[in-house]
Write a structure and sequence with these properties.
- This protein has 11 helices and 10 strands.
- With 274 residues, the protein is α/β, with parallel strands linked by helices.
- It has a single domain, classed as TIM Barrel (Alpha-Beta Barrel).
- The strands form 2 sheets. Strands 1-2-3-4-5-6-7-10 form an 8-stranded parallel barrel. Strands 8-9 form a two-stranded antiparallel ribbon.
- Helix 6 links the parallel strand 4 and strand 5.
- Helix 1 packs across helix 11 and helix 5 packs parallel to helix 6.
- The longest helix is centred in the middle third of the chain and has 18 residues.
Length: 274
């Protein structure tokens, strides 16, 4: 069976669940990866959200959570503030993970993805600290039958695989985002997906071009206009279990729905659902 295609809820900048469902329908899709932050912050009520999605015939396939204080202004600011690394936010981030795990459990969602943050050199004490924190979040999720998927991009694939091969990390999965590898200049996504393939539980479909100025971001572009090798990407995706969803993500540009439709058409051609 072909993989299911979905869209990241945050790509659509929704104002509320009804607006989100309406925009998902405009893309021609029927599934979403849901950002949990508006619900856990009390901005959206999860019971009314569930009813809205059921009435709209939109399925939530997975969830995403952010961590506290993330600053994406530059590569250096996100390196300092991203994911589970900042000591001053760790206890709050663990509490956020626990709350999001409960919420995902109530919504019957099997997977939550997040950025762990930049992985330090594995000979440092910082490395032990972040691996212990990932294990703590994973234990929280696993206790409710939820898979933790670490999103790629802020480290090279070999470094992520080294972390995943540590003891008690066998249930931690990967949310593979090829564009992030390009945006962060962390290696060739075609090589990375081959290396990480056994641990991939979900993929983000996003495209990007490499920066011309080392130390700065690459540029996110509509699918098909960047450097991701989509034929190779989907040749690997088609060998993965049917539970691995292809989730379209678009975080830049002023024509999000149109760009998501473009990505959906590309995905359908490769997945045989066109």
């Amino acid at each position: 069976m072909p993989k299911n295609t979905a869209v990241c809820s945050w790509s659509l900048n929704p104002t509320d669940p009804s607006d989100l469902c309406a925009k998902i329908k405009q893309t021609g899709l029927h599934q979403t990866q849901l950002a949990l932050d508006p619900i856990s912050a009390g901005e959206w009520d999860h019971e009314s959200l569930t009813a809205t999605f059921q009435n709209s015939n939109i399925h939530i396939c997975s969830a995403m959570m952010t961590t506290i204080g993330e600053d994406y202004t530059t590569l250096e600011t996100i390196k300092l503030t991203g994911g589970l690394r900042p000591d001053q936010h760790w206890e709050h981030n663990l509490a956020r993970a626990e709350a999001n795990a409960q919420l995902a459990h109530q919504l019957n969602l099997p997977l939550i993805s997040l950025h762990a943050g930049f992985i330090p050199d594995h000979s440092t004490t910082e490395y032990t600290t972040i691996t212990d924190r990932i294990k703590a979040v994973n234990e929280t999720f696993q206790s409710l039958g939820i898979t933790l998927a670490l999103e790629t991009g802020q480290e090279r694939a070999a470094d992520l695989l080294h972390l995943l091969d540590l003891p008690n990390m066998d249930t931690v999965a990967v949310n593979f985002d090829p564009a992030n590898m390009i945006l962060y200049a962390m290696g060739n996504p075609a090589q990375a997906i081959e290396l990480l393939k056994p641990r991939i539980a979900q993929v983000h479909m996003k495209d990007a071009t490499t920066t011309n100025t080392p130390g700065t971001w690459g540029a996110e572009v509509p699918a098909g206009q960047g450097e991701v090798d989509w034929p190779h990407f989907f040749s690997v995706i088609n060998t993965l279990p049917d539970t691995v969803n292809v989730v379209i993500e678009r975080e830049a540009g002023d024509n999000r729905i149109s760009d998501i439709i473009t990505a959906r058409i590309i995905a359908e051609q490769y997945l045989g659902t066109a």
